[in-house]
């Protein structure tokens, strides 16, 4: 029996579309049908694109007319709701932007449209990307397709859950401290945070401008690479955008999939990111994967990064400080929600009432923390000190990469925890990003890919690969090789073992 269209990878769908075996309308309809069947349970989507089938029909017409199309033309994709989309609401998971439809596309969205991908809709997220579980969305939590009582990670849990639930083959996310990689780890998907500046942030609703990065979510390394090739590259509208000429990441992934030996590759294990407090099953699968890499010829070396100990503390001063500044624009005057106090009031009264009602508890917590850290008398003691720690972390990475070509660690310290389990303990929630935060502070690229199920609970675990800035191709080459080795080991892809949703 032929596989259902919604279970095929983006690369497989691309081949079928190019050969004429299927149409984009058929592929898009199959994914819309899947969303209709399961998303009431998963809640991955906040908004569906009512023009998706029209877009698909237009792509089919272009192909029939003989127009030369890109490799993912006609393939559906989901978009994290932090990205502005012309004609579709963009709420960043917040009530303060409920119903807001931007007058423009984010650059990455415009590039997807130009490449003739079909936008399925917008995915759920923690409000303004603040969270590690997608429980802080103003529109309700997303559920992990592996176990609907568990979180799908955050802040981009909607994109990861949509991919893992076979509602879309590929998606876009954003990663400020692990919001692509941690959800990928706990849902058994692939997630990539590119080098800072390698993908445009224009039109991404800002959380922390020096940390945010847009990237792909997928079920395979090749699919992530194909998306990265489309969305990457210089954007003059983003002042932090790199002007580099990037290699084809899809070619790197294809080369990695064919690579038989890893001889000559030095893989560094960051001892500070292989902590004894991690879940036993995560550590077990990680060390089994290291053995697999060594058996393939890689040299495994232990590297130290002593300042990583302070990464979480530094991050939770830098991020709230930048967030308090970025979120000041939501003032009830220019756009978004406006709440008028009973009996009227000044502009300040309207602003206070609007922000009180429009922002959720986690956003308020971080705005208060960030404003305090930037206030007179505390700037040097807190924000300034955190930036100094950031420099030390960058130096630790430089030293580590002098000893290794890539670095690896678990992508998350545990498998998916239960919904509600950590809502009353912000610190416990923050520590879910302990392995992913350093890469954001340094601006280097990172990838999470599945490394097997934890034996104690049968839930996905993920391995993180990190490379020097601008060396994103190393992630795709090694990631594709490891993906093949793991499939050979387990005899199947991880997501093929996911429990079927009713």
Please give a structural write-up.
- This protein has 502 residues and is an alpha/beta fold.
- It has a single domain (5-305, 399-497), classed as Amidase signature (AS) domain (Amidase signature (AS) enzymes, Alpha-Beta Complex), CATH 3.90.1300.10.
- The chain contains 16 helices and 11 strands.
- It has an 11-stranded mixed β-sheet with strand order 1-3-2-4-6-5-10-11-9-7-8, with helices on both faces.
- Strand 7, helix 9 (280-295) and strand 8 (299-303) form a beta-alpha-beta unit.
- Helix 7 packs antiparallel against helix 8 (249-258), helix 10 crosses helix 12 (361-374) and helix 10 packs across helix 13.
- The chain is globular, with a radius of gyration of 22 Å.
- The model has no long low-confidence stretch (mean pLDDT 96).
State the share of residues found in helices, binned by percent: 25-40%
CATH topology type: Amidase signature (AS) enzymes
| Spatial strand sequence of the major β-sheet | 1-3-2-4-6-5-10-11-9-7-8
Kindly report how far apart the N and C termini lie. 21 Å
Largest sheet: 11 strands, mixed
Structural class of the helix and strand makeup? alpha/beta
CATH class: Alpha Beta
Rounded to an integer, what's the Rg over CA atoms?
Answer: 22 Å
The beta-strand count equals: 11
Q: Which homologous superfamily in CATH is the superfamily?
A: Amidase signature (AS) domain
Oligomer: single chain
Report low-confidence residues grouped into runs of 5 or more: none
CATH architecture tag: Alpha-Beta Complex
Arithmetic mean of pLDDT: 96
